[in-house]
Amino acid sequence: MSPSKVAAKDQRGWIVPIGGAEEKTSGDARILKRFVQICGGSDADIIVIPTASRQADLGSRYETLFRELGADRTRTLNFDSRDDGHRDSWMRRIESASGIFFTGGSQLRISTILGGTPAAKLIRTQNARGITVGGTSAGASILSEHMIAFGDEGSSPRAGSVRLAPGLGLTNRFVIDQHFRQRDRLGRLVTALAYNPFAVGIGLDEDTAAFIAPDNTLEVEGSGAVTVVDASALEFSSMAQIEEGEPVCLLGLTVHILVAGATYNLQTRKASAGALAAN
Predict the structure, then answer these.
(1) Which of 11, 62, 115, 164 could bridge 111 with an S-S bond, Cβ 3.0-4.6 Å?
(2) In which order are the strands placed within the sheet that holds 174-177?
């Protein structure tokens, strides 16, 4: 799924992947509160898509939370079958929203139910027209063109330790992994980059988000860290020479650990400590 082209008169909307387990107490939910703000604040109209989850009440819980955080209007669209991705009334509702949010669960449920439907195409188009799209955990993984479907835990990259699948395709600039430090996922993210050094690897700790602005500047929000792995200057990879399960030799990777206040430009591939450098 290639990203939709941004028209000359438009500016791409924010993309907001969250590492999962974000704070949901309204007084402390700074990630979700900021999501509401960039969706329009008191004018925000947010669609919640809980397709990744089998929890029947998850969509309504996020609806309530977004309203408590100041959103004017929220609505859950629970795409439960591929037929739902063709509903004209739901397409019109997506077209009227200022923000779209995917909950956690299984990213393969989202891709197999929504992938290739008019709804998926419309969400890409709406983001290219300026609408904010975000998601948490599985809802974060689905946002990019290349998605980590599943893989092994561990800090060392190993051939075959990760399986990639097509994501929603809002952008092809990065690959997301979530619950990053908590589930020891450095190895599988680096393995994904060994298959595709073009993309930037973004590892999101829990209760941590990457707010990616229309100019491709990533801003960190939350209590954890964002691990950025840049393979653009890769000098050597043994991926094509080894058997499945063997460790991969990679030379020339650049790694940044970013916390709230730090930024990373996905276009120039430059990191900044931001306000932290003045302290």
Answers:
(1) 115
(2) 174-177, 200-204, 226-230, 254-258
Catalytic residue among 53, 106, 137, 161: 137
Torsional sign, CA 83, 89, 95, 98: negative
Q: Is 179 a catalytic residue?
A: yes
User: Cα separation of 131 and 96, whole Å?
Assistant: 10
Catalytic option among 161, 179, 219, 237: 179
Give, for 236, the enclosing helix (H) or strand (E). Answer: strand 236-237
The answer to whether 146 is a known catalytic residue is: no
Domains of the chain as residue ranges with CATH: 15-273 (3.40.50.880)
C-alpha to C-alpha distance for 216 and 11, rounded to whole angstroms: 11
pLDDT in tens, 148-181: 999 999 999 999 999 999 999 999 999 999 999 9
Model confidence pLDDT, tens digit, residues 15-44:
999 999 999 998 899 999 999 999 999 999
Scan for tokens 């898509």, then name that residue.
49
150, 38 contact by CB (below 8 A): no
Q: Which of 206, 219, 221, 256 is catalytic?
A: 206
pTM equals: 0.97
Specify whether 137 is catalytic: yes
